[in-house]
Amino acid sequence: MIYRICHSTEYRYPGLVRNSHNELRLKPLSDLWQTCRRFELRVEPEARLFSYELPGGAVHHFSHRLPHHSLRIVAESEVESCKNNPFSHLDLITDDSPFYLQPSLYNNFCEYLDPTERVPNHRYIQLECEQIAASARQEVLSCSTAAFLVALTKLLHREFRYEPGSTHVHTKIEEIFIYRRGVCQDFAQVMLAVCRSQGIPARYVSGYLYTGHNGLVSNDATHAWVECLLPDGSWHGFDPTNDMVVNDAYIRTHTGRDYSDVAPVRGLYQGPPASKLDVVVTVERIDE
C-alpha cells in the first residue's frame, strides 16, 4: 500500500511571541516493512531546519527569534507499507518463555522494561497489570508470548472504552485504570505497563493509521500503538485501541519508551501563555 500523509499544525497566539524553539518527530521511518519515499517539511514564518537521528527516528528542529503572531508547521510524506499479513511471522504455539528469563535481556533492553514517569510500576499499577495479564493468559491455550499479546490486545480493547476528549496528554495512567476509558495514547501506555510487568520489552509507537472504510478509529492527529520484542529478535506491533495486530494500514514515525519520547511537535517560546492550536491530519491511499 502507498499512502500520502499531510500533517498540519498551527499555533495562534494572543500577542507577539519570540524566541520560539521547536522539535518535530514527523518523518515516517524506513525499515523492512515501510519505506518513506518522499518527505517535505515547511514552516511559516520561514526558518532554517536542522535534523538528527535517534534510535527511535528522525528529529527536526528550528528556532524563531523574531516576534511573530502565529506558527504553522506542515509535513507532507509519501510512504509505501508492505506488511499485508501481520500474522506471517508470529509463533502462536511454541512456549518461548525462557527467552524472557535471560539476564542479558534486561542488559540489552532495559529502557523498554524499566518504569517511566508516564508508565510507572508502583504497587497499584503492579496489581492492575497482574490482574489484566492473568485474565489474558486464561484466554490462550498455549504458552506462546505472541498468543498472549494477541489476547492482551483483545482484552484491553474490550475492557477499556475509546472515548475522545475523556483524557489529555498529561492524564496519569492511574486514572486510565480507574475509569477504564481514554484515547489511543492511553490504551498504548496501559499495554506498555502490562507487558513490562511480564518481563516483555515493549515500546511506544507514534504514527498514522489509514482508517478508510474499515471501522478503525484514530485520533484526529497521530495514532499510537505498541511494539513488543519477540524471541526471534523482531519487534511486532499491537494496537489495543482497535484490537489489531499491526498491518500495512499503519505508518510508523517514531518509537520510544512512552509518549514523552515521541511527541510529534514540542517547543517553548517567550510570550503570552495562552495559544490556540489547530491540528489537521489526512492519510490518503494512493492507487498506482
From TrEMBL:
One GO MF term on file is: peptidase activity
Q: Which residues cross the membrane?
A: none
Which residue intervals define the domain Transglutaminase-like in the entry? 176-242
**InterPro entries assigned to the protein according to its UniProt record, in alphabetical order:** Bac_transglu_N, Papain-like_cys_pep_sf, Transglutaminase-like
Hydrolase as a keyword of this entry, yes or no, is yes
Q: Which UniProt keywords apply?
A: Hydrolase, Protease
Coiled-coil residues are: none
Q: Which GO terms describe its biological process?
A: proteolysis
Which SUPFAM superfamilies is this protein grouped with? Cysteine proteinases
Q: Which domain of life is it from?
A: Bacteria
What protein am I looking at? Transglutaminase-like putative cysteine protease
Species name: Armatimonas rosea
